[in-house]
Design a protein that fits this description.
about 375 residues; six-stranded mixed β-sheet
């Protein structure tokens, strides 16, 4: 079934956004789709004359000419500079840089914090302490006019996407993927963006984690190495994988039982080809990602009607190491029903009464009396 996700006007808007994204790549501003973070790194490198690190360099975003290592964080400060940053490994860098943007991605404040000031790998900026940190003069940062203009145009398109409710955060690619998934399955987005492992719900009670990747060949990415990171501990019933092409059109969508995902710490995008129970929601336009078995409905899925506890017990009937396909679900339910009937049958069997301990006492007394009479009779005969 062909899905109409966007109007023609919205598709034109997304294409313009993609074109501006490519322009920022060509200007050396970004190298991935983490737009806010990478624009922040660009400004930090310009402010402190840093050489930008490669993407695989853990916790280090730039290195100075004297070898000092910098980690960069970026935030759009709509109304507050409050910023709490956790899981900072201060052994890996010398300075933490925080870049604050306005809604046009123009820097309004840049802080530099020496790593010894970071306690227990966590750092907080508040209105009461922000002025105690080193701040960089924004006017001193030399940015070419063409780059400033491209960043400003990029921000303008972002604002339009937000106004049309296509995106709702600075996680632009993820938001567009969630938009597609919710339209395809009639899902309700979670209002709490920090709810771990849960992006959306269905009215039948099922829950979903949604992962989105742009997949196309370019200098920005090697498509077949794409991964779906950070699936550890996700408690949703299903993982939805969405792929987008260069202009943010959906090029494939898959539904995967979360408990069947192998290597959740760093699963490859190719799990849609091999994971047991995977069903296809949108046919794949990517040659190395298979369309696979078509999804029809949730009717035959044991996880419906919010019966998570029942489904988890059902799964335990089978081997813990065995992955389940949808075709296995009916068999599991049959096994559970059979066990339930057997249990009821056992409970209905009339148990043999066990003598009460007072009864045993009476029997013992009678035996003792008889034994005494027997001994007395033996003694009388001996006389």
């Amino acid at each position: 079934m062909q899905q109409m996700f966007f109007t023609k006007e919205q598709e034109v808007l997304l294409k313009s956004f993609a074109d501006l994204s490519d322009q920022l790549f060509n200007l050396g501003v970004i190298s991935t789709d983490s737009f806010t973070g990478e624009i922040g790194e660009y400004y930090a490198c310009k402010a402190f004359d840093l050489k930008k690190s490669k993407r695989v360099t853990k916790a280090v975003d730039g290195i100075s000419k004297t070898g000092e290592k910098y980690q960069v964080k970026a935030k759009v400060a709509n109304s507050s500079y409050n910023y709490n940053i956790k899981r900072l490994n201060t052994k890996l860098f010398d300075y933490l840089v925080i870049v604050y943007f306005d809604t046009q991605y123009s820097p309004i404040k840049i802080l530099r914090i020496p790593s010894p000031l970071i306690i227990n790998n966590e750092f907080s900026v508040t209105s009461s302490n922000i002025n105690s940190f080193e701040q960089i003069e924004i006017e001193s940062i030399n940015i070419p006019v063409i780059t400033r203009t491209a960043i400003r145009d990029f921000a303008k398109i972002y604002h339009e996407l937000e106004q049309q409710r296509i995106i709702r955060s600075r996680r632009i690619v993820g938001d567009i993927g969630e938009f597609y998934a919710c339209q395809r399955l009639n899902l309700i987005l979670s209002e709490n963006r920090n709810e771990k492992g849960l992006d959306a719900r269905h009215e039948n009670g099922l829950t979903f984690e949604i992962k989105t990747r742009r997949v196309y060949e370019s200098g920005r990415r090697i498509s077949e190495t794409r991964r779906l990171n950070n699936l550890v501990g996700k408690n949703a019933d299903f993982l939805i994988v969405v792929t987008l092409d260069r202009v943010f059109k959906c090029s494939g969508m898959w539904l995967i039982p979360m408990h069947n995902v192998e290597n959740p710490k760093s699963a490859k995008l190719e799990i849609v080809n091999s994971t047991s129970g995977t069903r296809n929601l949108i046919p794949s336009k990517i040659k190395w990602l298979k369309t696979g078995v078509k999804f029809t409905s949730f009717d035959n899925i044991a996880f419906k009607n919010n019966s998570k506890a029942t489904s988890k017990r059902s799964i335990k009937v089978r081997s813990k190491t065995e992955q389940l396909d949808y075709d296995d679900i009916d068999l599991i339910n049959l096994e559970m029903r059979s066990k339930s009937k057997l249990k009821k049958k056992k409970n209905s069997i009339q148990e043999v009464p066990v003598p009460h301990r007072d009864t045993w006492g009476c029997i013992f007394s009678v035996v003792l009396v008889l034994l005494s009479l027997y001994l007395i009779g033996v003694l009388l005969e001996s006389y």
